[in-house]
Amino acid sequence: MDIDFSYFFTRRRLLQAAAGVASTTLLTARASELDERELKAAHGRAGLAGPDAPWTTVWAYDGTVPGPTLRVQQGRPLRITVENGLDEDTTTHWHGIRLPNAMDGVPGLTQKPIKPGENFVYEFTPPDAGTFWYHPHADSLVQLGRGLAGALIVEEAEPIVVDRDLLWLLQDWRLTDDKQLAPRFGSAMDAAMSGRVGNVVTVNGTVPVDQLVKAGERVRLRLVNACLARMVALRFEGHRPVIVAIDGQPCDPHEPEDGRLMLAPAMRIDIVLDMQGDPGSRHAVTDDFYDGLAYTLTTLAYDSASPLRAHPLDAPLGLPRNPLPQPDLASAERQEIVLQGGMMGGGKLAGVGGMMGMATPGMNGGAAWAINGMSMTGDGHAGMAPQFTLKRGTTCHLTMRNETAWWHPMHVHGFSLLVLARNGSPVPNRQWQDTVLLAPKDTIECAFVADNPGDWMLHCHVADHQMAGLMTVFRVT
């Protein structure tokens, strides 16, 4: 577990000191200073299977899996130089950040790929506080699958009061008996079905051990699903998590339906946990998304000390809202995308010559999926024709319809979507998301203001699905 006792207390003292005019001026000055960082993507190794197992050969940012957690300030200009130490092209996508199109990290579409031995300087000012992450968008199935991912946390000026602020970045790995990554990324079966689901799950780069907690404390837990394809549904035995943000965007604080936290690839959920267990007790955190395959991800293990406090902390849970433009639904332009294809999909893939006969979808790197009858495969490239075009400032009412037999977390670049309805029923709690999970046959309605010009990707974040055609582009002029 990423335990940092000093962060909360240092941060709280800073906020208390900022109450005066002089301190407020100091904070404003700091926000205008340039924050410079460096990252290097290169070959490395990691102890994914535990301390007693052989090292696994991976690709890593700055030699660690996951890469360094970048904590930055909302509204403070950021410059990140990414060096490519791999033997192939790469880029870095700042997932969920509303940034200039040229900084979005899609090869060909928004930037030239970073060649081996070269670097690229990303410059943007994060407008939103919250939990985000970074990963490649070149050969993304392989590069993300070999370990290239890290958390990007944009801190609020006034965070909620908690005792600890923790991160669990979840990844899974398909390991062989000798604890090395299984070869053959992009098999036809993975491409046309559920994607490359691994057989080992890690939290912050290691097989989870007990997560040590103290009775009476309040924890903010940032959950990031950085898996290629694994859907996660977490239950916290004996605890009542409260969701305070989804995909980095604050929502109305609420408990999840049936106490189950659904986290698709690329999604983030921030929860608040009041540790109300008894000193010395143990409580399982289980993942039961896949029928018949539930397992214990980790265990909340209470120390034996007396509770930190007798009653839960009496402090508000609502996070300050980010400056998202509010959609004008009365004047919205309506667009629809339809997800098609896949094994058992039965849909026509018009963009790849119609029905595939007896061939397996996705075989030999071909298309297995389509959006509105057209397949775009790979990671992005120059000249991708937009599915639709919006004038800058227009409100778009976007309907996404899943005609397939599979789950799809649909990720939009450059924007956050206000989720309006699922299968005709209103979605409560003012949820904004950049990655919206569609179950088989789901229909989702959402809206956003097209205030960010450029060509933007919209794709499934099951990496096999994206690479095999479940990707499109829209344009804001």
Can you give a write-up of this model?
The chain is mostly beta strands. The protein folds into three domains: about 5-155, Sandwich (Immunoglobulin-like), CATH 2.60.40.420; about 165-300, Immunoglobulin-like (Sandwich), CATH 2.60.40; about 330-475, Sandwich (Immunoglobulin-like). About 10% of the residues lie in helices and about 40% in strands. The protein has helices spanning about 5-15, 20-30, 140-145, 190, 465; strands spanning about 35-45, 55-60, 70-75, 80-85, 95, 120-125, 130-135, 150-155, 165-175, 200-205, 210-215, 220-225, 230-235, 240-245, 250-255, 260-265, 270-275, 280-285, 295-300, 335-340, 370, 390, 395-400, 410, 415-420, 425, 430-435, 435-440, 445-450, 455-460, 470-475. Strands 20, 21, 23, 25, 26, 27 and 29 form a seven-stranded mixed β-sheet that branches. A six-stranded mixed β-sheet has the order 10-9-12-17-14-15, covered by helices on one side. A five-stranded mixed β-sheet has the order 11-19-18-13-16, with no helix packed on it. It is globular.
Radius of gyration: 22 Å
- Give a count of the beta strands, DSSP E runs of length 2 or more: 31
Shape: globular
Question: How many individual domains?
Answer: 3
Question: What's the architecture of the largest domain in CATH terms?
Answer: Sandwich
CATH class division of the largest domain: Mainly Beta
| Euclidean distance between termini CA atoms | 44 Å
Fraction of residues in helices? under 10%
Q: What's the helix count?
A: 5
Quote the average pLDDT: 90
- CATH-defined superfamily of the largest domain: Cupredoxins -  blue copper proteins
Low-confidence stretches: 1-29, 346-359
